[in-house]
């Protein structure tokens, strides 16, 4: 072992670089959140100071609560995200099982067909998607968003889950067959519980882009009662652009749910990425 | 649930396979693949006196031939390439450098750093766009104030408001947001390098930085390739950040217009111009072509070559 690898100077340099970049990454979030708790004059006079007894104010949050439908937006985002994840995982796992478990003609082709969507963004088809949603009456409903996000998430889900399902032991499944379990029971009772970690990875990968998407809510569901939190805060901020207290509070409120989700799921997310699930 | 469907060897239809595949294939085909081809088809139509008529390549002739349209299209495409180049030149080196530092097994608090640096990636474009707009705003004065503190106040300019700097500033904001992704992927790739290889290098006196350049970097080239193509696809269908920070007009004076905002404006209309689904489809088809060319270049040009180096 050489000395170069544990030179104390190196480790000081490494920590300095990492702390510097961590500050760059967190600074904007920090500034937004602390200023959302200050009164208007203090925001401009000392933007970097923490709120103290004198400058503390919740006026921005009061405006947001009075003027915006943030609870409704939050509820919409929540329904869309959870429902999309449910369908992505259920349909994705079923298709992945069929591709991983059975030999049939066209298996390879079907896998390739489903994998196409990994590289081609669904946004390219927006014009026709909107027409379809208008003609089926789904425009301005949460179903439009759920369908689009399910279709968007399926390709990667099938790809990742089928990799994992190939590793489930054949002996186990054959034992189930000898015991007279149907193929459906083998899938739901034996295989699904074993691939739960992979399902969690897929869920976490899909959750953040769905929650944060602006394009499809803007195009498919812009009506007030179906606005998602991302679109709702965008519109709200656009209307209140000169009311800095309200804008900063709305931004902080939009940051909060994602941050909570991240704190809960960050381990899963990081483990998912680093285990090479996206290769 | 039928309990009798035991896998049979007879050439009869195995219904369970169809049942397992059907939901995913139906949703994927109906909501993704068919609309994609329908959009390509719509690009060949136009609306004349309230009726949809087939016009062949007329829309593309307008897009590339008409002075007004082609100026906007090439402006958006060139801006989009600049946006992508900044990501490649800034985001990926920073991501690789952070990953290289983090992958040192003796480093303490590395999971804290990883989680913290990844936070911007989980925020929505709306938050990121507005937060940076406020911070860079000359009215609020956080950016000029901070530059003043290190004696560089003269460098400050309303970067987002100037035509020459707005696009680069937005690209850097996007880099700030997404640097976590290359960092994580490269970190994973670095961890998967077997210790024996590094120790063999040490025996030959290859350590520290030269070990990084001579051993680790060649081994993580495939991951860098994957990151590049992911960045390419994401950049060429980007829209949200520009829309949140600069609006659908991609101001000032279209200097931050990229293909996504151009598609949105054309398809939906803005101010006095009415939305045009057929021209919108033509632009979407052009985006499809650009992305397809990029992906094919990667698959057939870069990926195969990288594999050969690895052997």
Mean pLDDT of chain B: 86
Order of helices and strands of chain A: HHHHHHHHHHHHH
Shape of chain A: globular
N-to-C order of helices and strands of chain B: HEEHHHHHHHHHHHEEH
The helix content of chain B is over 70%
State Rg of chain A.
24 Å
End-to-end separation of chain A in angstroms reads: 32 Å
Low-confidence region ranges of chain A? 1-5
Count of distinct structural domains of chain A? 2
Number of domains of chain B: 2
Largest sheet of chain B: 2 strands, antiparallel
| Uncertain runs of chain B | 1-6
By CATH, the superfamily of the largest domain in chain A comes out as MetI-like
At the third CATH level, what is the topology name of the largest domain in chain B?
MetI-like fold
Distance between the termini of chain B: 50 Å
Measured by residues with Cβ under 8 Å of the partner chain's Cβ, the largest interface is:
A-B, 99 and 98 residues
CATH architecture of the largest domain in chain B: Orthogonal Bundle
Beta-strand residue fraction of chain A:
under 5%
**Total count of helical runs of at least 4 residues of chain A:** 13
Number of helices of chain B: 13
What is this structure, in a nutshell?
The complex is a heterodimer of chains A (279) and B (311). Chain A has 279 residues and is mainly α.
């Amino acid at each position: 072992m050489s000395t170069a690898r544990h030179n104390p100077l190196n480790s000081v340099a490494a920590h300095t670089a990492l702390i510097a970049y961590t500050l760059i990454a967190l600074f904007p979030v920090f500034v937004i959140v602390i200023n959302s708790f200050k009164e208007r004059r203090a925001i401009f006079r000392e933007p970097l100071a923490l709120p103290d007894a004198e400058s503390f104010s919740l006026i921005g949050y009061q405006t947001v609560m009075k003027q915006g439908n943030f609870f409704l937006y939050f509820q919409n985002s929540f329904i869309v995200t959870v429902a999309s994840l449910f369908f992505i995982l259920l349909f994705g796992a079923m298709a992945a099982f069929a591709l991983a478990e059975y030999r049939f003609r066209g298996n390879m082709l079907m896998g390739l067909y489903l994998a196409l969507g990994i590289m081609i963004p669904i946004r390219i088809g927006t014009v026709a998607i909107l027409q379809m949603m208008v003609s089926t009456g789904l425009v301005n409903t949460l179903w439009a968003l759920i369908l689009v996000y399910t279709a968007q998430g399926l390709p990667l889900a099938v790809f990742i889950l089928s990799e994992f399902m190939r590793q489930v032991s054949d002996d186990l499944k054959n034992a189930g067959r000898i015991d007279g379990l149907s193929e459906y029971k083998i899938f739901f009772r034996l295989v699904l519980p074993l691939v739960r970690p992979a399902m969690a990875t897929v869920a976490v990968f899909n959750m953040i882009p769905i929650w944060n998407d602006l394009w499809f809510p803007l195009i498919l569901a812009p009506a007030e009662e179906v606005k998602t939190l991302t679109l709702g805060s965008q519109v709200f901020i656009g209307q209140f652009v000169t009311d800095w207290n309200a804008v900063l509070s709305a931004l902080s409120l939009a940051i909060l749910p994602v941050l909570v989700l991240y704190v809960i799921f960050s381990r899963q997310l990081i483990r998912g990425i680093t285990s090479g699930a996206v290769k | 649930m039928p309990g009798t469907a035991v896998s049979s060897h007879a050439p009869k239809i195995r219904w369970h396979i169809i049942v397992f595949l059907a939901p995913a294939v139906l949703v994927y085909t109906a909501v993704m693949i068919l609309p994609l081809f329908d959009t390509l088809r719509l690009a060949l139509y136009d609306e004349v006196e309230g009726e949809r008529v087939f016009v062949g390549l007329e829309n593309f002739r307008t897009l590339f031939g008409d002075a007004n349209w082609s100026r906007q299209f090439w402006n958006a495409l060139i801006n989009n390439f600049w946006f992508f180049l900044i990501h490649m030149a800034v985001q990926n080196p920073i991501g690789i450098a952070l990953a290289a530092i983090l992958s040192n097994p003796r480093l303490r608090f590395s999971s804290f750093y990883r989680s913290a640096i990844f936070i911007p990636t989980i925020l929505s474009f709306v938050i990121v766009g507005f937060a940076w707009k406020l911070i860079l705003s000359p009215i609020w004065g956080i950016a000029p104030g901070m530059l003043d503190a290190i004696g560089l106040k003269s460098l400050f300019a309303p970067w987002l408001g100037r035509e020459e700097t707005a696009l680069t500033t937005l690209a850097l904001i996007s880099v700030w947001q997404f640097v976590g992704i290359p960092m994580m992927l490269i970190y994973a790739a670095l961890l998967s390098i077997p210790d024996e290889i590094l120790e063999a290098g040490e025996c030959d006196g290859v350590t520290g930085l030269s070990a990084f350049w001579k051993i680790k970097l060649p081994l993580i080239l495939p991951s860098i390739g994957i990151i590049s193509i992911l960045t390419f696809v994401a950049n060429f269908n980007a829209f949200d950040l520009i829309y949140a920070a600069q609006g659908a007009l991609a101001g000032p004076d279209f200097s931050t217009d990229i293909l996504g905002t151009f598609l949105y404006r054309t398809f939906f209309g803005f101010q006095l111009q009415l939305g045009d689904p057929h021209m919108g489809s033509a632009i979407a088809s052009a985006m499809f072509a650009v992305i397809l060319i990029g992906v094919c270049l990667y698959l057939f040009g870069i990926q195969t070559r990288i594999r050969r180096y690895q052997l």
